[in-house]
Design a protein that fits this description.
heterodimer; A: alpha/beta; 2 domains; 9 helices; elongated; B: alpha/beta; two-stranded antiparallel ribbon; 30% strand; globular; binds flavin-adenine dinucleotide; transport (chain B)
Chain lengths: 320, 261
């Protein structure tokens, strides 16, 4: 069976959920061989094996942390040459896309980014993409070279499928360009203890209607009652009420949760681009004409300062 | 010594219009007005600021696109760029990212550069990979997705706010930079700028000027193929209630019925 290279996104050995989803997709088109790089790479093996990796190629070197992107491209290329896979799958993070794209140039292949689904086809894997702020769905293929495809979070279920997961060290020789862009300092993002925005099953977002940084506490309280992540519109982020890392939309994160709750958000096209594929959409807005209501499964026309706290109380009491 | 800045800008269909695909599954450009991709305005802005800081600098805006794409170049020129390069060729219709990046790389080499500045992503394809590909093709460092950027003494420095960390980056020129919409508000063209733009040079290049064969680009030469594009069905109208004091409770009822609580 054809081998499929899967690039592993992990933080010090803790594999992030989108990679486990990629393993599910990879098994539809072949046998997943995972590539884990950097600090803690070998620690990823057990969970990758549980989810279907037949092999885990690992490499660690200071270059991965000290220089931007290129060392990882060198390593992924080494894995590509060692395995000769039928396709390469990479999670659609900002860095993942850059790594995938540079690899595609090097190996003379086409690239598809931000796939939301993947299936086997007669002429290789067929990717589903969502275009123009999710108003269109396209099916596309890589027609030259080995398909390189990046996949968005929440595109497939995580499924256990135990496999060998034999760990092998990958030999990497860094290219001359690997040290081109130096990372001179790194400030890790503080953890809020809430689920990762792009991975969360429920996202509760606030917009300009929240009207102040301090008022985001009521959005957070609702999120916490539901075990949800907190999102924000660009208007709220630009006003300095919530960090940019929580922005949902075209230039923020794109989310596709089971449930999206928008409070005080009008539903501009750029915001929709990042949340339109959510399974169930709920909005609270005092303006009955707000475009967000065109998308909702359930909408409440009302003041969020009345509706949101009441909802939070009700959720808490129902959950006991 | 003069600093040569090339800014890559894309001409895209207006995102607030009713965008769709043409019969050959390329972007339909006839029904929706085109404009300079809003995210590329941030690239033009940072280029102009870097040029203002440098003793002597020249800002060239570059686009690969159809005839109308000149509008995007005019906008950038009216913001303050010095000159423009337009790569236009009938054989380019339907080119994917591999072809587009090949054309851009050759045009950049022909123009000459110390730094290339691009947007974080286009507002139509939204791949967000073109700057990294350019760096690979040109064989120079990529300093991408910056929310803050400066150039001094032949070194570009910037801040990249990633998923798990914020990083300070540094690279020697020549380099490819891309900037996010956090990098600073883009200026509006002044009346003077708009008048001045009319006199600024726009150089037109075609594929033969860049030694690119027709079969390396276009729909036929693409490395990817789109098999179908279907409009997402409009969401079925949801339930909308007016809050008369029980709105939160009614919403909780709905969430419970959907098994979210
Ligand atoms: C290139 C580009 C990229 C962009 N990227 C993004 C992006 O990634 N994400 C994003 O979100 N936007 C993005 N935008 C901005 C986008 O166009 C909108 O400006 C933005 O989404 C508006 O945010 P908002 O809905 O919070 O604010 P508004 O549009 O001002 O809406 C506020 C809403 O709150 C309601 N409201 C006010 N008070 C209350 C109350 N007490 N109770 C209930 N409702 C209330 C109002 O009725 C209104 O509908 C981008 C724009 C551009 C040009
Ligand atoms: C909905 C849609 C989906 C697509 N999916 C794919 C795909 O999966 N694979 C694929 O190979 N192609 C794809 N394409 C084609 C691809 O978008 C174009 O070839 C494009 O020019 C490069 O990608 P991008 O626009 O997404 O640019 P991005 O990588 O998002 O652009 C980043 C920056 O590069 C610069 N730039 C991009 N294009 C130009 C240009 N023409 N002239 C000057 N500067 C430019 C701008 O500074 C821009 O801000 C898609 C197009 C559409 C409309």
């Amino acid at each position: 069976m054809a081998e499929i290279l899967v690039y592993v996104d992990h933080v010090d050995g803790a594999v992030r959920k989108p990679t486990l989803e990629l393993l599910t997709l990879a098994r539809r088109i072949g046998e997943p061989v995972a590539v884990a790089l950097g600090n803690g790479a070998a620690d990823t093996a057990a969970v990758l094996a549980e989810h279907g990796a037949v092999k885990v190629l690992t490499a660690d070197a200071p270059e991965f942390a000290e220089y931007l992107v290129v060392p990882k491209v060198d390593a992924l290329q080494a894995a590509y040459e060692a395995v000769s896979p039928a396709a390469v799958l990479v999670p659609s993070s900002a860095e993942g896309k850059e790594i995938a794209a540079r690899l595609a140039v090097r190996i003379g292949s086409g690239i598809i980014t931000d796939a939301v689904d993947l299936e086997a086809g007669d002429e290789g894997p067929v990717a589903t993409q969502s275009a123009f702020a999710a108003s269109f769905t396209t099916k596309s293929r890589v027609s030259k070279g080995t398909p390189v495809i990046t996949v968005k979070p929440n595109s497939a279920p995580v499924e256990a499928a135990p496999a060998a997961g034999a760990v092998e060290t990958l030999a990497v020789s860094f290219s001359e360009k690997a040290q081109g862009t130096k990372i001179v300092a790194r400030t890790p993002r503080e953890s809020t203890g809430r689920p990762e925005l792009t991975e969360a099953a429920i996202v509760v977002s606030g917009g300009r209607g929240v009207n102040g940084a301090e008022n985001f506490a009521i959005i957070e309280a609702l999120a916490d009652s539901l075990g949800a992540a907190v999102g924000a519109s660009r208007a709220a982020v630009d006003a300095g009420w919530y960090p940019h890392s929580n922005q949902v939309g075209q230039t923020g994160k794109s989310v596709s949760p089971q449930l999206y709750i928008a409070s005080g958000i009008s539903g501009a096209i750029q915001h929709r681009a990042g949340m339109q594929t959510s399974k169930t959409i709920v909005a609270i807005n005092k303006d009955a004409e707000a475009p967000i209501f065109e998308l909702v499964d359930y909408g409440v026309v009302g003041d969020l300062f009345d509706v949101v706290p009441q909802l939070t109380e009700e959720v808490k009491s129902r959950k006991g | 010594m003069s600093l040569r800045i090339v800014v890559c800008v894309k001409y895209v269909p207006d995102a607030t219009g009713d965008r769709h695909f043409a019969d050959d599954l390329t972007v339909d450009r006839d029904d929706v007005d085109g404009l300079l991709s809003e995210l590329d305005e941030y690239a033009v802005e940072q280029a102009l600021q870097i040029a203002e800081e440098a003793d002597d600098a020249e800002v060239t805006v570059l686009t690969v696109g159809p005839e109308d794409a000149k509008d995007a170049l005019r906008k950038a020129l009216s913001m303050g760029a010095d000159k423009a390069v337009h790569v236009e060729d009938d054989d380019l219709h339907g080119t994917d990212v591999m072809g587009t990046s090949l054309v851009l790389a050759k045009a950049i080499e022909k123009t000459g550069y110390d730094v290339v500045i691009a947007g974080m992503a286009s507002t139509d394809g939204t791949m967000g990979v073109l700057p990294a590909i350019l760096a690979e093709r040109l064989g120079v460092p990529q300093v991408t997705l910056l929310s803050e950027v400066s150039i001094e003494d032949g070194v570009v420095k910037g801040r990249r706010d990633g998923d798990t960390a914020s990083e300070q980056l540094e690279a020697s020129l020549p380099a490819v930079v891309s900037v996010t919409d956090q990098s600073g508000e883009a200026r509006y063209p002044s009346f003077k700028g708009i008048m001045a733009a009319k006199k600024k040079p726009v150089e037109s290049l075609d594929l033969s000027d860049l030694d690119i064969e027709a079969d390396e680009v276009g729909l036929e030469g693409s490395w990817t193929a789109v098999d179908s594009a279907t409009e997402r069905p409009a969401r079925t109208a949801g339930t909308i209630v007016k809050d008369e004091g029980e709105g939160g409770k009614q919403l909780a009822e709905f969430l419970a019925s959907q098994k979210f609580i």
